[in-house]
Each structure stands twice: as structure tokens, then as C-alpha cells.
């Protein structure tokens, strides 16, 4: 069986390589930032999700009017049934639910 030892690099060489990579990354980042600073961006103007949401809001607004009318009509029908003349045998506490003559 053969045992092989790997020689580690000295600490100074490791630190030097780390510094070189950090400097290279910083230079590349700075170059990219300068490149991006020159661009004018319109954030979110052409997002398909926004366009879809806007169209959905229009559809919902159209439905709201119809739903409100239907609910108002149902409420009117329900109130008309409740507001009938109170029968004679109804207790006084429940007479408030009936229409007075």
C-alpha cells in the first residue's frame, strides 16, 4: 500500500492567491456596475403579469355592478317578505320585524 502525502501551500501563497482573486472579482464587479449605470431602465413597465392583472381588474369591475344589482334585488325581496303585516298572535318583542300599519 502506498501512502501519498499532499504538500500544502504555504500560508503566504494562499493569502496572495486570495487577494488576487478578490481584486479580480472587485474589478469585474466595478466594470459591470459602470456598464449598468449607463443604462436607463423602465422597471416593471412591460411585465406580462401586470398587464394580466389590469385586465382582470376590468373584468371584476364589470361583474361588480351586476352582482350589486342582484344582491340589492334579493335584499329587497327578503325585506318585503319580512315586512308583511304582523299577525295578531306575535309577541311584542317580535313585532319589530314586521311592517307597521
- Strand and helix order: HH
The chain-level structural class is mainly alpha
Number of helices: 2
Proportion of residues in helical segments: 55-70%
Calculate the mean pLDDT score and round it: 81
Oligomer: single chain
Radius of gyration: 39 Å
Distance between the termini: 112 Å
Q: Kindly estimate the percentage of residues that lie in beta strands according to DSSP.
A: under 5%
* Uncertain spans: none
Largest sheet: none
**Strands, count:** 0
Shape: elongated
Describe the structure using short key phrases.
mainly alpha, single chain, 61% helix
Task: Describe what you observe in this structure.
The structure is a single chain. This protein is mainly alpha-helical and 101 residues long. Helices cover 61% and strands 0% of the residues. The chain contains two helices and no strands. The longest helix is centred in the middle third of the chain and has 35 residues, at 48-82. The protein is elongated and about 110 Å long. The N and C termini lie far apart (112 Å). The model has no long low-confidence stretch (mean pLDDT 81).
Amino acid at each position: 500500500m502506498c501512502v501519498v502525502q499532499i504538500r500544502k501551500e504555504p500560508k503566504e501563497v494562499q493569502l496572495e492567491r486570495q487577494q488576487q482573486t478578490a481584486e479580480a472579482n472587485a474589478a469585474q464587479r466595478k466594470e459591470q456596475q459602470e456598464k449598468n449605470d449607463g443604462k436607463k431602465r423602465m422597471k416593471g413597465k412591460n411585465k406580462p403579469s401586470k398587464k394580466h392583472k389590469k385586465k382582470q381588474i376590468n373584468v371584476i369591475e364589470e361583474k361588480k355592478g351586476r352582482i350589486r344589482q342582484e344582491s340589492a334585488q334579493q335584499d329587497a325581496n327578503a325585506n318585503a317578505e319580512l315586512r308583511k303585516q304582523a299577525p295578531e298572535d306575535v309577541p311584542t318583542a317580535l313585532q319589530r320585524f314586521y311592517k307597521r300599519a
